[in-house]
């Protein structure tokens, strides 16, 4: 049967400050961590937004931004784009995970790995691959023009192209979260719904989507933020469709007309926008404040008939399209090349070149930075989720909101903040692995926090109360009862955190050096030097490495069913 | 091991790792730049130059300074100068090569050491350092990358700025973004040099290009690389980008200087202020600026025009005397750069709604 209950927050939140317990110290610790590694570095950046050339106070950068159509247009564009990407990602991601969860599909593991891989292409190289495939002179474009000239094909550039590329890249965020949520729906609820005449699509809408609404909203928020913060895709294929983050990037890191103060002002506007979106999402989620826990999960059906065929086409088609750029990069990595140009013929030359360019160090750094940051992320996210869901109060809501800020800020701004804050004693961290790990944790924690929070909202408090009443300490209850129940939900976020950690680039641009270089940075460096063959080799290794890690993970966790 | 146990164990392990990492993990990967041995041959080079250029320079330096170990940190000029500025509390790099555009004027005065090479006298007069820290070592001249095949398909012959206004080229010309890329700024500067600084003719040409739907690309290299890929017919770019592609074996594009005349941005190299290994950086820059170094680099790379008075023979570039040059008023451009970029932004917004 299903336990469906409403958490009784009001009773437990009384007089918390008067009775500090172990969780109070966790709250203080988290506030300290965010204060030191997020607020303090960003303060240095944000201060710039209201300081003019001579050190005086000024609003002129804000006025400049708000008074020019050119700049306001970038915000409008970012909003329109992010909403479009979110809707498309939900529209393709929810059916994907519905079929995945409720049907026995052949090659389910393959579909899962493919879906996750499709959200990991590093900025620049992924978009570059799409240009080679679907640009005006692209492979696919040329093919269609030659063989199917009656189909009007446009090119990948512009608004439609960005939505296409980003949705394919971000729908796995939706589907990975939704898999967990769908699985937590108890079959008795669905049976009850059918008996009352709610069947088929009607039932999906009336029962399943509503039951999973907290997760749908959490996933939408992540997709929205991710689309809003992305700058590699619009930069390369936007062609005049200028977004907000491209503007910040140009103002900070452009070669001409750099204006750090103006960039900081744009950053502040970005933080305000994010905070607003986040609060709206929080409000919406609070409308669905209930918990469910399946004790009898729904049995998987075998896909049958024409519907089954269509389902297979949908699932494999989507994954194929999603991993297409990665596959094309792997193919290109074997092509002969001479700096910026691919030549006929195939060889391992690009890989040999990579081996002489810090390949081993890049791989090693990628792995150890990845796992170290992931470990920190998991611990912090579980603790934060607990604070937010079970111990909601002002301080813990503040922690929750703070943790989401890095999601919108372009990585470059966070990178600059960290370098400014930590390049002199007592905390001289510039050039160390520590500063990179800090950046990775701050940037990529939101995935795990969101999934951990959404999961915990689904878990009734009764089991914890039982443990406490039987004499278990607060910490023992947390580690032995709560954490294991959250495991499935945490993992979905952790997988996405990991994948995005290994492809992190924008904050690393300013933080890395040759001792702390990663595979993604090696690929980026190769691109910026104009050696595309070498960049493809690094990216291909990264893709294969991630796929292998995911497969090992599945090997360990899955018997019949894949737990996510 | 069951899944739940795995996660529980993982969380416990993670907790211990997390605290270990907080306590100064990765200290062994730090260090490097800050040691102060007398005979240090480790050079950290910040550079925005291409693969082709860096490989040639690295080879020359390894020959000239036996035992040198060069660590190259690559990035766009904007990324690197921002980086140097942010790192000023604890400088990580020794010198920067490439991307330091003399048209930036004194903007980077605070982050580079005011020091000039011993060979300042061997530099052509118009490329002498404007401010005492730019060692002006190479040029970047404005040129069109033209895709010969696509040009033929359209039945055009593109040689001058006026040819770019042909409606057949609508949406088929590409340039980097002048608000962020020095190569695009270089192209705007040349239009000013050809038609007159801030003249109506110059702005008419710029507006004409925008109205012909010129595409603003995200990166400087797109303006030649994607012409080669067949994405666009013409790229407004610089000669060494095109020459590098020709050197790599591209056959479908050509290096076309505008009939109206071309001019060059001058790029330079400098020692980072407070560099951990400044003495070696100075030796290296002395070599780069020497007639010997200029000739060796220019001839080996074959795609870059040098600033030396000595003669440099290049395989992929026409001799300087065969190209039509126009005078560029660098001082005026430096002074009015922000205004021009702002006016460009206004015209861009107006044309694109």
Which labels suit this protein?
heterodimer, A: 564 residues, mainly alpha, two-stranded antiparallel sheet, 25 helices, 72% helix, disordered C terminus, B: 353 residues, alpha/beta, D-Maltodextrin-Binding Protein, domain 2, 2 domains, 10-stranded mixed β-sheet, 11 helices, 39% helix
Report what the structure shows:
The complex is a heterodimer of chains A (564) and B (353). With 564 residues, chain A is mainly alpha-helical. In chain A, 72% of the residues lie in helices and 3% in strands. In chain A, the strands form two sheets. In chain A, strands 1-2 form a two-stranded antiparallel sheet. A two-stranded antiparallel sheet of chain A has the order 3-4. In chain A, a hairpin with a 2-residue loop joins strand 3 (335-338) and strand 4 (341-346). In chain A, helix 17 (359-390) packs parallel to helix 20 (433-458) and helix 17 packs across helix 24. Mean pLDDT of chain A is 83; it is low at 8-15 and 559-564. Chain B folds into two domains: 42-139 and 264-318, Periplasmic binding protein-like II (D-Maltodextrin-Binding Protein, domain 2, 3-Layer(aba) Sandwich), CATH 3.40.190.10; 141-262 and 324-352, D-Maltodextrin-Binding Protein, domain 2 (3-Layer(aba) Sandwich), CATH 3.40.190.10. Chain B is an alpha/beta fold and 353 residues long. In chain B, strands 1, 2, 3, 4, 5, 6, 7, 8, 9 and 10 form a ten-stranded mixed beta sheet that branches. Chain B has eleven helices and ten strands. Helix content of chain B is 39%, strand content 16%. Chains A and B meet through helix 4, helix 13, helix 17, helix 19 and helix 20 of A and helix 1, helix 2, strand 2, helix 3 and helix 5 of B. Chain B: Pfam families: SBP_bac_6 (PF13343). Chain B: This is ABC transporter substrate-binding protein. Chain B: Keywords: Signal.
Put the structure in a nutshell.
Chain B: This is ABC transporter substrate-binding protein. The complex is a heterodimer of chains A (564) and B (353). With 564 residues, chain A is an all-alpha fold.
